[in-house]
Write a structure and sequence with these properties.
Elements: E1 4-5, H1 25-37, H2 41-55, H3 59-62, H4 71-77, H5 82-95, E2 100-107, E3 116-123, E4 132-134, E5 165-166, E6 169-170, H6 176-184
Parallel strand pairs: 1-6
Antiparallel strand pairs: 2-3, 2-5, 3-4
Helix pairs in contact: 1-2, 1-4, 1-5, 2-5, 4-5
Amino acid sequence: MQPIPETSDRSAFLAADEAVDHDHRVVRETAARLRAAAPDPYGYARAAFEFVRDQVPHSYDSRDERVTWRASDVLTLRTGICYAKSHALVALLRAEGIPAGLCYQRLTEDDGTEPVIHGLIALLLPGRAAWSRLDPRGNKPGIDARFDLDEEHLAWPVRPALGEYAYPLVHAAPPAPVLDCLRRATRASAIDLPADLPGAPGQ
């Protein structure tokens, strides 16, 4: 599915907010280090993706109970679930002038039960007409998400037969259900992931 930005105002995908706080010193310093080794936009985007994917462990994989949701906290504490890691990657991209936003999938267990919303990102690099989705969740056995602007290599391809789907919109800011579940949680293992979001295909 081709990602669709929720607004035609490109500046919305470069803005800083409470969660995507790319005006924070930690985000700026991290971006500067990555940019020094990868000066062109394509190389920088790949470096930022691989940094968040590989150097910020997913809370569930590492069993780290700290809850993060601001990009600056994700990069400082080096932990977060998929939503938080997506905030961090979007912040790093926007810090260097690359339009980026937040995307979501509805995923289920193998029998189609227990749906949850999974977070990832989309970016638009110079010279490209279409947005590309990337998944910085973090790899492990059975998951091999990669940086590829032409063919998606996400953590989990959706399985329509089980009621899974990709939401078409690229959000400039985290939707309220996503941000609220992170703010409410006192530990990572107790985060109450939303089961759906507005804007599902067919709505």
